Known about the structure:
With 332 residues, the chain is an alpha/beta fold. The protein folds into two domains: 112 residues, 3-Layer(aba) Sandwich (D-Maltodextrin-Binding Protein, domain 2), CATH 3.40.190; 181 residues, Bordetella uptake gene, domain 1 (D-Maltodextrin-Binding Protein, domain 2). The protein is 38% helix and 19% strand. The protein is built from eleven helices and eleven strands. Strands 1, 2, 3, 4, 5, 6, 7, 8, 9, 10 and 11 form an eleven-stranded mixed beta sheet that branches. Strand 2, helix 2 and strand 3 form a beta-alpha-beta unit. Helix 1 packs antiparallel against helix 6 and helix 4 packs across helix 11. The radius of gyration is 19 Å and the shape is globular.
Amino acid sequence: MRLLRPRVRALASLLSAALLVLVVPPLLGTESDGDGGTSIPGLRFMVPNEPGGGYDITARTAAASAEDAGLTDGIEVFNLPGAGGTVGLSRLVAERGNGRMAMSMGLGVVGAVHTNHTDVTLADTTPVARLTQEPDIVVVPADSPYHDFADLLADWREQPGSLPLGGGSSPGGPDHLAAMLIAEAAGVTPRSANYIAYDGGGELLAAILGGEVAFGVSGVGEYLDQIEAGELRVLAVTGESRAAGIDAPTLTEAGLDVSFMNWRGVVAPPGLTEAERSRLIRLFSELHDSAQWREALKRNGWADAFLTGEDFGRFLQDQDRRVDETLRELGL
Length: 332
């Protein structure tokens, strides 16, 4: 039986500081040939949350895949966490005209701009590419008393405030939005849900395993290793179909009329020349076409959602509007 019907389905469809320098040597490839070639010497890839989260995994996987495919000699990946990704966003916008910097981002940054009321927005950046999409999962530690989603849902409905749930995004981000859509579909008032925000999947994982929350909501690709090792148990998947290799029902199968997908992409500073923008787009286009990236998509359970340049820019505008509408609809 479906519990909340068209309204939640419509809402769900709307969404389909210390510097930690980590990883690899700086890029040493040859200079561009002047016609928008791939190589961008000295390219730095910012991750606007803690190590271990979805943006971090995406950035490091992209950098490693590009090097393995012979597109670069290395990309410096560094973390600048804070405020749901908006600390990193502010830094990126301040790098105006810097064609050797890019930032890993996604729906979480879109939401954080709204809930943190920042002075800068994604409209101030240069859109490069949308890379992936994936469903979220509802997950508990292996020693949790909850072995199926129905049992968790029954207790959550009865006493929503007594079951803290964690997400790897700030209010307005994908994990928060997915959790709130699930709550509304289940008859739990979103404002009564005890949602605890963590800065990325790495922090959330520690909270789940440490018993700080009763359950977590996060991207499926962030916890594949822990799921395979038996440290985490997946109770439900937010996508329209089941996730490959995970024995858990969709929310629709579990009786809730909700379907939700997260996405991730890349933006660059404002004020780039057309040649600089084209080189970044070409780099990620050639990465997208590589066998190394196709293998990475499969390994991480990511769906290909490639979109570049102005098309990605229009998508960002649409997501910004729809996140705002959804937060208002949910009373958040």
